[in-house]
Amino acid sequence: MADDVPPRPTDPASIRAGHIAAEEKIVRLTAEETVAVESGAIPSAVVSHEIIRRHGLGELNRSAWALMWSGLSAGLVIGVSVIAKTVLQQAPIDGAAKLLLGGVGYSLGFVLVILGRMQLFTESTITAVLPVATNPSRKNVLDLVRLWSIVFAANMVGTFVFALAATHGGLPSDLHDGVVEVSRAIEHFTFGGAVVAGIPAGFLIAALVWIQPRLDGERLLAIVLITGLIDVGHFAHVIAGSAEAWVLALAGETSFAAAASFVAAAFIGNVLGGSFLFSLLAHAQVRSDQS
After folding, report:
1. What pLDDT digit, counting tens, does each position of 42-65 carry?
2. Which of 139, 174, 219, 282 is most buried (CB neighbours < 10 A)?
3. What is the domain range of residue 138?
4. What is the DSSP string of 53-68?
5. Number of domains in the chain
6. Which candidate, 283, 79, 30, places its Cα nearest to that of 183?
7. More confident residue, 103 or 6
8. Containing H/E element for 223?
9. Taking the complete model, does pTM exceed 0.85, yes or no?
């Protein structure tokens, strides 16, 4: 009589747990580091890397529908950055104070998206990349391409719907005009300039994800400071920037081709800054420590 073969798990939670368990054979942690990973404590960069890597594995194994809805929500909600910046910049102040207040407004959409655990493409430039850097298997690479494709497309649909509502949704005329005025901030970018400006934006978002496991009560402040710096520094964030680009196109201020060109350039810059600069350098230092 043949030996009984236990049934393979079919529910998503069991599949993710099995995939993580298989991946754990690749990463060698000390007993203390393993306890720190499980408890969420961060005594070293190795543990921070492992917490983010495991989170990335969970993302890579999410269903396409879950990624799509989460990405769509993030694209819609990031539009709050444009609205909040518009409202705050209408305050009767000038100079540096107005610039900083606009940066705080710009950060609000990111606060809602990140604390709400919605799927933002630029966060995945580190979370989904670390599992691939650790174990560059065919499955992990294909899962990364799948996640990036679904999330980016969903984010773009979300920002387009926001822009459509902002330009043709019956906003008060002063708010409508303010949204268009705020969105003109991206008009000065050439394609190459947007790529260059996208690199620090991608780097900063990856850095924010990297330090989040170390944060407790300071998490909100860190999100406001880092994402606000993207606005104050005139850097190019592909998702928030796409909301502004679609606003300009729908308001007749620019062509859809020019808007798409900005989005493509910011995408390249964000991936270079988030994945190739920050993520791979962070991975390299951890692997060097383990070696």
Report:
1. 446 777 778 888 888 889 999 999
2. 282
3. 64-290
4. HHHHHHHHTS-HHHHH
5. 1
6. 79
7. 103
8. helix 219-232
9. no
